[in-house]
Amino acid sequence: LPPFAAANLCPGAEQKVVFITARVHPGETPSSFVCQGIIDFLVSHHPIAKVLRDHLVFKIVPMLNPDGVYLGNYRCSLMGFDLNRHWANPSPWAHPTLHGVKQLVIDMYNNPKINLEFYIDIHAHSTMMNGFMYGNIFEDEERFQRQAVFPKLLCQNAEDFSYSSTSFNRDAVKAGTGRRFLGGLLNDTSYCYTLEVSFYSYILGGPTAAVPYTEEAYMKLGRNVARTFLDYYRLNSLVERPLGTTPKTR
User: Which cofactor does it need (predicted)?
Assistant: First the structure.
């Protein structure tokens, strides 16, 4: 490794992994812009990005359904499958992207040097406004409460993210989704979410008019998702801040 490589990437080092996927449904183009915002921020020279790279490992799959995107499909893959219903038993032939990603997740889960702490699958929603999340329901009340921490922090960082629209469920229809399947596979220190963002607009505080989403607004939400990990892991004190001018006395 080069001398400037982060210590958490050295051979044998313990790693805290954040796994992010997007665009499993081809028509949900906003998810790509949100994911692009996350990637652009993490590889930037921003002081927060540097701290995040030093302490966390981000694994990002920006397009889970490239064939469907290429064909212009709305929801299905090349073979007509809704890939987000086949996480439980993906076929290497019919669902190759899911099969490969699931195998990578399992390999990391079985590696004692890796703590897979977050899985976030990015989608777009055609009827709801703002950004919001879906999470899982657990019998353990403490685990359920801990799961709510990240979306609450994101709500503080992103004006277009709504915690009130965030919900936790065990809907049988969603059993084959990444969020539901991996939530049942991983241990109680892992948190799995679906991040949804509106196709069209968001509402700021109060009964104001809806603000149309733009590509930049989607990417800003992605940047705010990345920044929220700084708060979650309490790394704020490590961010280098430029020296300010000495305030004048009265």
Answer: Zn(2+)
Q: What are the pLDDT digits (tens) for 188-198?
A: 778 999 999 99
- Amino acid identity for residue 84 in this structure: N
Q: Does residue 42 sit in helix, strand or coil?
A: helix
Domain assignment of residue 226, yes or no: yes
Going by C-beta distance under 8 Å and a sequence separation of 6 or more, which residues neighbour residue 239?
Answer: 47, 48, 51, 230
Please list the alpha-helical segments (H only) found in the chain.
Answer: 30-42, 47-55, 66-71, 96-109, 141-147, 149-157, 178-185, 215-232
> Which residue in the list 139, 196, 215, 216 is annotated as catalytic?
196
Q: Which domain holds residue 142?
A: 15-240
CA angle 211, 212, 218 (to 5 degrees): 105
In the chain, pLDDT over 70 holds for what percent of residues?
Answer: 88
C-alpha to C-alpha distance for 244 and 240, rounded to whole angstroms: 12
pLDDT digits (tens, 9 = 90+) for 79-97: 999 999 999 899 999 999 9
Within the chain, how many helices (H) and strands (E) appear? 8, 8
Assess if residue 63 is contained within a domain. yes
CATH number at residue 144: 3.40.630.10
pLDDT value for 206: 63
Query: Residue 48 falls within a domain, yes or no?
Result: yes
Q: Is-catalytic flag, 196? A: yes
The number of domains in the chain is: 1
Q: Rounded to an integer, what distance in angstroms lies between the CA atom of residue 108 and that of residue 127?
A: 35
What's the whole-model pTM score? Answer: 0.90
Q: With 80 as the cut, is the pLDDT of residue 18 above it?
A: yes
